[in-house]
Amino acid sequence: DPEVSEGIDFATFASHLTLEHERRSQHLTWTPHPVTLVAGPWNFPFAIPTAGLVHALAAGGAAILKPAPEARAVGAQIVAAFESAGVPEGLIQLACTPDDEVGQHLVTHAGVDQVILTGSLATAQMFHGWRPDLVLRAETSGKNALVITAAADLDLAIKDLVRSAFGHAGQKCSAASLAIVEASVYDDPSFATRLADAARSMAVGIATDPATIVGPVINAPSGSLLTGLTTLEPGETWLVEPHQVATTEFGGTVWTPGIRWDVQPGSWFHLTECFGPVLGVMRARDLDHALELQNATEYGLTGGLHSLDPAEIDTWLDRIEVGNAYVNRHITGAIVQRQPFGGWKNSSIGVGAKPGGPGYLNTFGVWTDADLDATATTSSLRAAWSQVYAHDHDPTGLRSERNILRYHPLSGVAVLAGSDTTAAQRMIIDEASSLSGTPRYWFTDTEELIMRLPTLGVERLRVLGAVNQSVLAAAHAANIAVDTAPVTSDGEIELAHWVKEQAVSITRHRHGRLLT
């Protein structure tokens, strides 16, 4: 039900975004990516592929759905649903390729203009290694933590923690993999007892049993997940030791939840994604230390805080480095428009807005402008900054939960100017950089750019004109997103290249009673 509902939400939301496109098309030219390849995941085999497909069609393009090998039957049902709804046959193609050289041929084919991937960071890096000029937008890995301070309601915190860690058997990219607990709570033996009891109380079994809360792991664990479920590191103990209790007819395995106690800062489990029902618990001296531990990983997908102290909440929201931040609630289950979903750092590859957010349709094509007037664009930039980007937005307006979309400056943008870069383009980029607070670094020499990229500390490379493969490869190696979109006179479109989005969801009630 949540998956089908989310698919419906994405279809409805994409249709609304086309209205904004019609308005903007009065002064800009929109060119959709002709063919988008949607490489869907197995853990959300309906909703996530549907999001890519409906936006590709809404943009004016065609799509190919390559479902995960475990989810081919669902992929076929998705395409059938589109066609039964009136989408012309063949506008969406189903390509059930294996994950071998045949899949590589599809991903790297010159007829594919964009790839939407939900998968691991390693897969995204592999795709770019195959084809450096690939337009890739990927939601990748996460090492997500929920912080619990002494000011938390511990009953609610424990409830939300086990739900976030073990729902879907921990096989959500947003799942809680770490609990970072303030010392006074961590050192109280009753906390460990209550957490262990909560985890052990979750019904474990096959997915067809209605009583099941923790269902199967998709395959027999291997690699990091197998290590996470079976091997402790120095100083760690099992608060709850996991066990395999069953197998499924489809090759899955059923595991009870596992909780590793006293995970050490900088340890393997602190920094490594383990995609399954295993949670690590860390001790933090205070909120500052908790934030240090939470931000220490290379990922920045989701994160949570349980605290009833407004000052702690403000501090955490000011400093947390995640794309989706949750306060006094579970950290999974993002809903279209309420919580546009996508991460920071190595949890997101490529440029553009989050799925489920107001700018997502713009990533399925290119806006161009026949007349670039620097003076008029400067006015448009300033208006867009004051009206859109300088403010928090809560379009759903729920009283019981604040759902805020806000914009942060990037650490920096390197700009590679071509021989035909105009003075107007330079003026517009300088103004956008100034308004957004994102530093920009101009380059005209590709060799200098390649040499400096690894140490420049930027998040994006903006390319004005043609770019060679060596520059692209250098950017991908440094985990820097490449942005080839042209400069336009629309301030809202241009400023999107200079910020990153963060979705914040804050519970605003206590046991059903609204907070003032």
Question: Please, could you describe this protein's structure?
Answer:
With 516 residues, the protein is of the alpha/beta class. It contains 17 helices and 27 strands. The chain has a nine-stranded mixed beta sheet, with helices on both faces. It has a six-stranded mixed beta sheet with strand order 4-3-2-5-6-18, sandwiched between helices. Strand 2 (35-39), helix 2 and strand 3 form a beta-alpha-beta unit. The longest helix has 23 residues, at 2-24.
**Overall average pLDDT:** 96
Total strand segments: 27
- What would you call the shape? globular
End-to-end separation in angstroms reads: 33 Å
List low-confidence stretches: none
Could you give a short account of the major beta sheet? 9 strands, mixed
DSSP strand content: 15-25%
Percentage of residues assigned to helices = 25-40%
Q: Walk across the major sheet and give the strand order.
A: 9-12-13-8-7-15-16-25-20
Gyration radius over CA? 23 Å
Derived from helix and strand composition plus strand pairing, the structural class reads alpha/beta
Total of DSSP H or I helical runs spanning 4+ residues:
17
Topology overview:
Elements: H1 2-24, E1 29-32, E2 35-39, H2 47-59, E3 62-66, H3 72-84, E4 92-94, H4 101-108, E5 114-118, H5 121-130, E6 136-139, E7 144-148, H6 154-166, E8 176-182, H7 183-186, H8 189-200, H9 223-230, E9 237-240, E10 244-247, E11 253-255, E12 258-261, H10 268-271, E13 278-284, H11 287-294, E14 299-300, E15 302-306, H12 310-319, E16 324-327, E17 344-345, E18 348-349, E19 365-368, H13 374-389, E20 401-409, E21 413-417, H14 423-436, E22 440-443, H15 446-456, E23 460-464, H16 469-477, E24 481-483, H17 491-495, E25 499-507, E26 509-510, E27 513-514
Parallel strand pairs: 2-3, 2-5, 3-4, 5-6, 7-8, 7-15, 8-13, 12-13, 15-16, 16-25, 21-22, 21-23, 23-24
Antiparallel strand pairs: 1-19, 6-18, 9-12, 10-11, 14-17, 20-25, 26-27
Helix pairs in contact: 1-2, 6-8, 13-14, 15-16
